[in-house]
Amino acid sequence: MQIKIEKKGEIFKGKASQIVSKQLGSAMYESVQLVERNVKLLTPRGVSDARKGLLGSIRGSIINKGTPMIMGQVASNIGYVEVIEKGRAPGKKWPPDGVLIKWIQKKLGVWGKSSSMRMHKIMTPEKMAQSVEFIIRRKIGKRGFKGFHMFEKGLENSMSRLTLIFKEIGLGIAREFSE
Length: 179
What we know:
It contains six helices and four strands; from the N terminus they run H-H-E-E-H-E-H-H-E-H. The chain folds into two domains: 1-87 and 147-179, no CATH class; 90-143, no CATH class. The chain is rod-shaped, with a radius of gyration of 26 Å. The protein is mainly α. Helix content is 51%, strand content 8%. The protein has a two-stranded antiparallel ribbon. A two-stranded antiparallel ribbon has the order 3-4. It starts with 15 loop residues before the first helix and ends with a helix.
C-alpha cells in the first residue's frame, strides 16, 4: 500500500497571510458598522440636526487594515462626548458658560416670539436663555446627571453578533485555504 501526499490549496502557494488579512478586514468592517449603528441608536438627539450634532459626529473606522494588528474603532470627535457617555458626578465643576444656550433655546422654547415666559416683556430672549442656562448649569454642578453610556451599551448590544462574525471568518479562512 502506498500513500501519496500532495501540497494543494492556497496555503501552499504562500497566500495564507493575504487570505487571513482579507477575511479579518471583512469581519472588522462588518463589526464596526454594527457597533456604530447600535451606538447611534442609543445616542441622545440634541438640538443640532443629525449631521452636525453628537449623532453625526459618531464614526466607525478601521485601523491597520491589511495587518495582523487590525483594529476597529467607533468614536466621536466632539469634546463633550465623554460627559454625555459617562455623566457628571454631583458636586463637580459646572458646565462651561454658554454651552447650553442653544439647547435651552430649542428644547425649552426660551427664544423669540414663541416664548411664553412672563419675563419676556422685561428681558430679551437672549437674556432669558442666559438666566435659564445659569440655573441649569448650577443644578448640573450640584446634582450631576447620569450618562447615556451609548458606546458601552452599543458594544454590549453587539457582542453576540460580533462573536458570530469572528467565528464565521475561521470557516471562511479554512474554505479559502482548501481551494
